[in-house]
Amino acid sequence: KKKEKKKKLLRLIIRISMKIKQQTVKIKISGKVQGVGFRNWTKHVALIHNLNGTVMNCQDKTVETCITGKPNDIKRFLGTYRNGSKNSFIKEMNSKVIDYKEFINFNIIKK
């Protein structure tokens, strides 16, 4: 019984430490990314990679995305994101780690 309690405690500690190791990344994308369904595609790809955050069109015709999740999930997301959706064209993509932000889900921000 004591061994089982230790195993449960260890599993709990591992789950907590995995959550702590999350990070937030801000991404700015330019190119043909507005009016082509890019934000909906972004949400779809983020959810596939277990990420939460936001995406929005900016006045300068770019798209800004903030995502929070495990570093490996973010890395895989960025690999897919860099190629864009079928109707978009990515001219430039800049990403940087920012202070951690907790998101409950993934939202498309409409202005």
Topology (elements, then pairings):
Blueprint: H1 2-20, E1 23-32, H2 38-48, E2 52-57, E3 63-69, H3 71-81, E4 89-98, E5 106-109
Parallel strand pairs: 2-5
Antiparallel strand pairs: 1-3, 1-4, 2-3
Q: What is the helix content?
A: 25-40%
Strand content is 25-35%
Major β-sheet profile: 5 strands, mixed
Tell me the strand order in the biggest sheet: 4-1-3-2-5
Task: Summarize model confidence as the mean pLDDT.
Answer: 91
Textual characterization of the structure:
The protein has 111 residues and is α+β, with helices and mostly antiparallel strands. Helices cover 37% and strands 33% of the residues. It has three helices and five strands. It has helices at residues 2-20, 38-48, 71-81, and strands at residues 23-32, 52-57, 63-69, 89-98, 106-109.
Descriptive labels:
111 residues, alpha+beta, five-stranded mixed beta sheet, 33% strand
Q: TL;DR?
A:
The protein has 111 residues and is α+β, with helices and mostly antiparallel strands. The model has no long low-confidence stretch (mean pLDDT 91).
